[in-house]
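So, who can interpret the following?
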Amino acid sequence: MTESAQGATEAGLPKRLLLATDLSARCDRALDRAAQLAEAWLAEIVAVNVLDLGSTPDQILAWASGATEQDLSQIALQELRRNTAGVNVPISLRVERGNDAADVICKVAGEVRADLVVSSVARNEVLGRFLLGSTVEQLARSVTQPLLVVRQRALQPYRRIVVATDLSPGAHGGLQAAARLFPGQALQLYHAHEAPLAGLSDRLDATQSTSVAAQQACEALLEQASLPPDTEVNIHCERGAVTSTLPAFAREHDVDLVVLGIEAAPSLVSALLGSTALRLLQWLPCDVLLVRSG
């Protein structure tokens, strides 16, 4: 092991990334980001495609001509090989078959001991939003590894990183993961708090009191998070519903990555992602890293 590789391992950086691709052009963005991260982390990539008869013109024509499942797998593998040509990090390719793509991806991620799953919005999603029932949504509900959902082109390493917190215990996991994965990178801790009830007589004082309490709660979270001493974290609190304020903040400040931490056992994740986290996955204009703790 080289000195740099040993240092990366000791720092707890991911060593194996699983790239989930449907062979569509949109997944090129996920591939480029996975390659950039793998190079920075001295990691390897496992690219997996779950065989879909309608994913490429070659497969459709072959299927219509009576091609066998083995033939179709070879076509998908050839396409996967073409798509990943030129990647400058170690990469292995897998074509799998299964009725549920998300289940297959989760299984492969466990088999190869992936540290991070990387995916992108699917080819049939309108205006970049996740369709309910999409593979990415199912992955967000079920995968135990951190899930990176790529929307933007990987023109440069992540520079503007926001860690969204609802001040729950799971928020520690998202903040710690961001500091570990992007050492030395300044982080923005973001919290949105609801406005006081309209019926309060001294509403302005109540609003100010709520804002001060939110700021203090974020400061307390930072003290409890046990981050590396050189981690720079700036706090931003604002009033409103996070599902509307955070996407607006991301657009205004040209955010590259939003990290969402969720504390939940797998059986509870479906209910949690049915609300705030899933809406954020739908509406955020940038890449999203979903980190589950607990």
